[in-house]
Amino acid sequence: MATAAIVIAALLLVAILYGIARLISTDQSRLPPLARLRGRRAALEDEERWCAGLLLHGRIGARSYQRRMSSLA
After folding, report:
1. Quick one: residue 69, left, alpha or beta (phi over 0 = left, psi -120 to 50 = alpha)?
2. Residue 40 · residue 33 · CB < 8 Å
3. How far apart are CA 66 and CA 60, in angstroms?
4. 58 torsion bin: left (phi>0), alpha (psi -120 to 50), beta (else)
């Protein structure tokens, strides 16, 4: 049991050190890859369509729709 705890702790320590090294290094770009940006944009468009559908079918009110849209922006 102690061996498993040591292995898990070592893996966590390596992950933390790797994350810190990536933050400090100048080789890594600070901007996310384009694929991730496109995925986020597609997810936002899907959510917008979903909210518009809810509004059109009378499942949410105009105020709730406006609040949801403003939270997406």
Report:
1. alpha
2. no
3. 10
4. left
Predicted structure pTM score: 0.46
Q: Which amino acid is at 41?
A: R
Q: Are 72 and 48 in contact (CB under 8 A)?
A: yes
Question: Phi, psi at residue 30, to the nearest 5°?
Answer: -80, -20
Task: Give 57's DSSP letter.
Answer: T
Mean pLDDT of 32-44: 72
Burial 38-68, CB ≥16 within 10 A → b, else e = eeeeeeeeeeeeebeeebeeeebeeeebeeb
Dihedral pair phi/psi, residue 40, rounded to 5°: -65, -40
